Amino acid sequence: MKLGLTLALIACLLASFGSMAGNDRQNDRNQGAKNEQRRLAVNSPDQAVAMVQRQYQGKVLSVQSSGSGYRVKLLNNDGQVFSVSVDAASGRVSRN
């Protein structure tokens, strides 16, 4: 009888450790995503807008996330609307 209880206890402990290992793997994936975000030159729409405003004059009309970064739409002093792309990985700003 004691052997059966001991084996059942061991099985429970092993199952518990297995789920803890799964949690550790999930935590590792989450940490990897955080590290990737830290490696980006541009981490937010606000940061993208600030970079664009350093290079171009105009009123910011909108900012949108694009596949590789952000697209900022501006209205210049002459009334022309233009877009500027900001690459999130490199921080490169380019007018479209």
UniProtKB/TrEMBL annotation:
The reply to whether ATP-binding figures as a keyword in the UniProt entry is no
Q: Tell me which species this is from.
A: Shewanella vaxholmensis
Keywords annotated in UniProt:
Signal
Instruction: Say which domain of life the source belongs to.
Output: Bacteria
Record flagged with keyword NAD: no
Family matches, as InterPro entries: PepSY (IPR025711)
Q: What is this protein called?
A: PepSY domain-containing protein
- Region Disordered: start-end pairs: 20-44
Where the record annotates domain PepSY, the positions are 44-93
Q: Which residues cross the membrane?
A: none
Q: What does UniProt give as the signal peptide span?
A: 1-21
